[in-house]
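@channel sequence for tomorrow's demo:
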Amino acid sequence: MVAPITARENYLRAVTFRNPDHIPYEDVVRNLFFIGDMMWMEQRGYDIWGVGWDYELKEYLPMVVDHPIKRPEDIDHFRPPEPVFQLTQAAVEFMKTEDLSSFVLSGFHPNILFERAWFLMGMEQFFELIMTDTARAKKLLHLIADFNVEIARQYIQQPIECIFVGDDYGNQSALMMSPVLWRELIKPELSRVLQVYRQAGKIIKFHSCGHITEIVEDLIEIGVNIIHPCQARANNLAEWGERFTGRVVFDGGVDTQYTMMMGTPDEIRAEARLRLQQLGRDPGGGLLLWADQNMPFPDQNRQALLDFVIQNGKYPLRLDP
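structure tokens (generated this afternoon):
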């Protein structure tokens, strides 16, 4: 009798199209954070870039309240912090005390380019800079990418198999800048950072909220393996399934804006079935079906989605209504 594959092996098969047993639902991925990115829950103050953060509700992320770059001319003298890599104490302790063979270890490298740029000078001011002084905008993005290339080079020295990279580009119905502008400003610098992980053989999971349909092809081109969170009400996921199945892993897909937060268990099951049909078409894997954002869902809704994935996620998937 063939022994069942472990949850860890099943996850790795799913994200590399190597015939998993089922859609992964087990808690096997552990993100290893590094010190010096941004502030997180219940943190306020200034990060290593000189960006000020504060929060009002401890359950949610703090917001940017102060920017070190006040005028475009400040970019001429701006220098990023030294890219000194250090894992958080929690990550260090985890690796000391846990049996790592049970987990998929993933680096966590968010706010990698565009978001860091507007953290530094404010979103409205950065968009204005893009349109009025493109050369300085490119200079700032290049400096940020230089820092993150060095962080990536140090991250790959850790025992990670995956890297979780983040940079939000979309709003509810469109990219925040035109695809042409994104390809001119963002894509070359993002590619430089991802190349470090790509050449080291790491699985690259890329997070961007909102509508990003027009640049999914570009993300695949520069080495992204997993797209997250496949935001359902911001993108046409039927189109995604038709165009990108077998070329990138879909992570997420079930609507949070209404269904997971306010819908009934029946509505959750119905939407999960729809996303299974749209995004689960590759028999070799490529689907991590879950909510498209991490929010405080009602317990019965979270359980309804988990039960659906467990009951309907066995390969070969049944895609009939």
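heads up for whoever presents: The beta strands are 29-32, 45-46, 52-54, 63-66, 104-109, 162-166, 203-207, 226-228, 249-254, 287-291.
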